Amino acid sequence: MKPSHIALPLLLCAAACKVNPYHKSNRVYKDEAKFYARQISEHPLTSDVDSVPPAPYWVGTTNFNLRKPNFVIIHHTAQNSCPETLHTFTVARTQVSAHYVICRDGVIHHMLNDYLRAWQAGASRWGNVTDLNSISIGIELDNNGFEPFPPEQINSLIRLLAKLKKEYNIPAANFIGHSDIAPKRKVDPSAFFPWKELADSGYGLWYRDTTGLVVPDAFSAVTALRLIGYDVRDSGSAAQAFKRHFEQDTTKCWGPADRQVLYALYQQYE
Catalytic residue at 140? Predict the structure, then answer.
């Protein structure tokens, strides 16, 4: 038999037998999913409650489904490559994760079922919501925070957002950034992120043309920021997060042009 007749089957076997480098963390994922599935299937406790008579039997409702996400939180990884981020999210000691990681070349890694709770928002607040992890999907973009986002990456993000918005009926206003919900701690997805491009596609809000817009003297910037959703307990950090998102501006100053942009956006919430 000619050597070439042997080489091809060996190559095919090598490709078929290639080991997923994340097979160990995938096993942990599956074990955790099975654990939570068992918890969900167990009927509620009907005893051990002080002074409350137990029911004679458990009655399970037939009308239910999974709780669905209502926000999308966009991040940048602050790391230097997709493999670095994937490693971070598959090591237990880091205690961080996201539902999706989008690489610079547009490849999307779906790391966690959308209905499960990722550890991505951390200590945060948006309006009266203080547990964003429980009602949001986290998307991490492979970016160190000091560079533009490649078109391939943004195109993949927009396609993903279209799917999520349709599947979960997420309001346009609920596509926000990590720095929006944690202005004192976070700056992602950085001032390079093209929020207007997303808003033009229906993901996030944007403001109208501010040319000639007159802002009333009584207009309160802090009140407007709070109404939009920002945590204004540190109003300076909230204002910076707003400028980073809507003006791609990282300066700390606040002037008439900033008030115009804020007022234009505020009018959408009145």
Answer: yes
Lowest-confidence pick of 11-25, 160-174, 195-209? 11-25
pLDDT at 1: 45
Do the domain assignments include residue 17?
no
Are residues 76 and 172 located together in one domain of the fold? yes
Number of domains in the chain: 2
Cβ neighbours, 10 Å, residue 138 = 26
Which one of the listed residues 42, 140, 147, 152 is annotated catalytic?
140
The predicted-structure confidence for 77-105, as pLDDT tens digits, reads as follows 999 999 999 999 999 999 999 999 999 99
